[in-house]
Design a protein that fits this description.
Dihydrofolate Reductase, subunit A, multifunctional enzyme, 10 helices, alpha/beta, APOBEC/CMP_deaminase_Zn-bd, 13 strands, elongated, Cytidine Deaminase, domain 2, zinc ion binding, EC 1.1.1.193, 2 domains, metal-binding
Length: about 325
């Protein structure tokens, strides 16, 4: 198996555990024997459990000796809750280590250098951009900036409307798009809305399967605003914890959620615009349905743009079809 093919399998393993490994990053690993055949796969276990390399090495056993480890993140070189992954790789007799992204954490970094010093061949950067923009996106962002990564999820018509003139909005996007949102909720640390959304739509903000069952993992539900949230609102039920933040300041919201990594903003136009004005949105996920609605209910309020030269520019990270809809992923220029 090629290094790239093995890395894609490792990426799939990392994607599978995303959201379950905090504060550790979601990492995937594949072990190939000396002939290049898969003998072990693994992903990071919940905190206190084994790292991805150790899980894959356990599955491989003696077949790992003389083989190759393919990992989405450079193996760690420090003793935290668990011993260094470098030690496990050396003890297993791995001869080559392939990784996608270098570990930017100064406490855990330099695993590849230590492996090379012990005579192990190291191959860095295989599918590095794909991993950095995928399963490790939010974790890397927090290491760089010191704050959680904020994704604004917005769903609307092709002309930028979130509801018809009478307020009806269920549903603009397709079942496939809504299923994709629920999968992303299940991987997020928290889902954020404003009190206006709770009053108008009474969302549950849980992560649910297409048949309505709850996923095993649920995000923290965060409601932001000064209005009271009635006890009978769905966000007050027992399906998932809920945090009520009596503020309208996005910076205060991030301070309250500083121990989290991956925040999913699903608010209406007022709170989303406040986050945009504050420069605190790191990615936009826009689900665009092929429908024209018109009218006053736009997906965003004013963001301080009085003339076109003031408009913030974004770059397309990816463009995907989701059923009949289009999912646009954008990052700031």
């Amino acid at each position: 198996m090629s290094f790239e093919a093995a890395m894609r399998l490792a990426i799939a393993q990392a994607d599978r555990v995303k959201g379950t490994t905090y504060p550790n990053p979601p990492v995937g690993a594949v072990v190939l024997d000396s002939a290049g055949d898969i003998v072990g796969v693994g992903a990071t276990e919940p905190v206190g459990g084994a790292h991805a390399e150790v899980v894959a090495l356990r599955a491989a056993g003696e077949r790992a000796r003389g083989g190759t480890a393919v990992v989405t993140l450079e193996p760690c070189n420090h003793h935290g809750r668990t011993p260094p992954c470098v030690d496990a790789l050396l003890a297993a007799g791995i001869s080559t280590v392939v990784h996608a992204v270098a570990d930017p954490n100064p406490v855990a970094a330099d695993g590849a250098a230590r492996l090379a010093g012990a005579g192990v061949t190291t191959v860095p950067g295989v599918l590095g951009a794909e991993v950095a923009g995928g399963s490790l996106r939010e974790w890397l962002h927090k290491l760089r900036t010191g704050r959680p990564h904020v994704t604004w999820k917005v769903a609307g018509s092709v002309d930028g409307r979130s509801a018809a003139a009478d307020g009806t909005s269920q549903w603009i996007t397709s079942p496939q798009a809504r299923a994709d949102v629920h999968l992303r909720r299940a991987a997020a640390d928290a889902v954020i809305v404003g009190t206006g959304t709770v009053v108008a739509d009474d969302p549950a903000l849980t992560a649910r399967t297409p048949d309505g069952a709850l996923y095993d993992r649920q995000p923290l539900r965060v409601v932001v605003g000064l209005r009271e949230v009635a006890a009978d609102r769905k966000v007050r039920n027992a399906d998932s914890p809920t945090m009520l933040l009596r503020t309208r300041d996005p910076a205060e919201v991030l301070r309250a959620l500083a121990d989290r990594t991956d925040l999913f903003l699903e608010s209406g136009p007022a709170l989303a615009s406040a986050f945009l004005r504050a420069g605190l949105i790191d990615r936009i996920l826009a689900y665009v349905a092929p429908v024209l609605i018109g009218g006053p209910n736009t997906v965003i309020d004013t963001i301080g743009v009085d003339t076109l030269t003031q408009a913030p520019r974004w770059s397309y990270d990816s463009v995907l079809r989701v059923g009949p809809d289009v999912l646009l992923s954008l990052v700031p220029d």
